[in-house]
Every structure is written in structure tokens, then in C-alpha cells.
Amino acid sequence: MTTPIAIQLWSVQDACQEDFFGTLRHLAEMGYDGVEFAGYYDKSAADLKAKLAELGLGIAGSHIPYERLRDELDAVIAFEKELGNDYLVCPYAQFETEAEWIEFAKSLRVISDKIRAAGLHFVYHNHAHEFEKLGNDYILDVLLAGVHGLEVELDTYWVHHAGVDVVPYMARWSDRMPLIHLKDMKRAPIESTEIGNGVLAVRRFAELAEQNGVKWFVIEQEAFEKAPLVSVEIGLKNLRKMVGK
């Protein structure tokens, strides 16, 4: 397989807080091809771009809170273009009522139009609750069907956690999935673990994603028994073995 592998930096957020550039160097030395941002730790776009170039790291995307996308979109777009990031990801949203989700979708249409007009991609990252129903359809399906140009960074762990069969759901949106989150699941207690040390069919998900033309595999881990930097190195090595890369 030739699809590059990135790390979602939320997984190593404590290390990033302590020494952001040092952590990026450590991840590059592990063999990661790129990173997906979850904040910039007060670094400028120019400094980040230079550091990534120095380390040979690409950019899979950036998780940007919905509130910033809604309220500061011009500044967000300018920063991301200077950085060289093509994929702006809304990482999370949750609402209590159908009316609130409908208003959210309307807001995403405005955001999507502006991001795409700037030549960038707008992507939504799911958790499990987007597989609750809005009318007769999953919330995530309503968003993807109702927001022109919106793409999905499918988090396979949360799809499975929601009780949805991952493989056919991947096929449903295969042409709208430039990024995919790969993580594994412990059975007891149910929580994320290093890729290769859990029960999910990560190899199958990766194979199908590559067949569908995904641009980046993104490793993420949310629960740890080892130091996070140790765990994400284990996950990278195991995923490389799975995909023959």
C-alpha cells in the first residue's frame, strides 16, 4: 500500500503541550509520514510550515472547533492556506434537538461554500452519536447529504461503537472520504488501544479505504495503558505490518 500514515496529535497532546516541535521530531523519527493537527500551541503558520518541511512531515488535515469555523472563518482559512493544509475538519458537534441539528447543517452549508471557494476541503469527523436517527436517517447521513461538498473523515472505531457495520458504511460514502481514522478497540473495558492489539478489523478497513482512494490513514488513540508516545509507535509499526508498508 502507498497511502501515507499520519498521527492525530490529540493522541499525544501532553507531549505537544510540553514540547511541540520536539514531539513532532520524535514522531518523524518513528516513521510517521504526516500529522493531523488538533491545535497549534501558539506557533505561527510560517514556523510550523518550516518545521514540517525540515522534518519531512506532511499535513493530513487539521481539527478546528466548530465555533472557530463559524465565527472566525476568514482568519482560519488564511492560516490554513499559509500553513499549506488542504483539509479543514470539524471535529465534533452535539445537539439535543432535531431543530438544533438542522440549524447546524445550515451553518455548515455556509462554511462549506466559503472553504471550497478558497480551494480547500471541508470535512466532518464523527463520533458515535451521529449514528442516532434524525427522522429516518442517521445524523451523519443527513449532514453529508444536505451540505454540498462536505466530506467525511470516518472514525471507524466510533462507527463500530455505535453498532453500525463499518465496511458497508465505508462503501456508502466511498467517494466522499479523503481521510480515515484508524484505531483499535479493547473488548473489556471497551476503549481504544494500540492498532493491532484490539478486536477491530483494522486491516480490512485500511484495504477498503485505499481501494476507495483515501488520501491519508490517520492513527488516533484515546485511552492509554502505556505512555502515549510509546503506544502510537506500537500502533504505527502494527499498521505498517498490516498494510505491507
UniProtKB/TrEMBL annotation:
GO molecular function: isomerase activity
Claim: Isomerase is one of the keywords in the record: yes
Record domain Xylose isomerase-like TIM barrel: where: 25-228
Domain of life: Bacteria
Keyword flag Isomerase: yes
Pfam families from the UniProt entry: AP_endonuc_2
Keywords linked to the UniProt accession: Isomerase
Protein name as it appears in the record: Xylose isomerase-like TIM barrel family protein
Species this chain originates from: Listeria cornellensis FSL F6-0969
Taxonomic lineage of the native organism: Bacteria, Bacillati, Bacillota, Bacilli, Bacillales
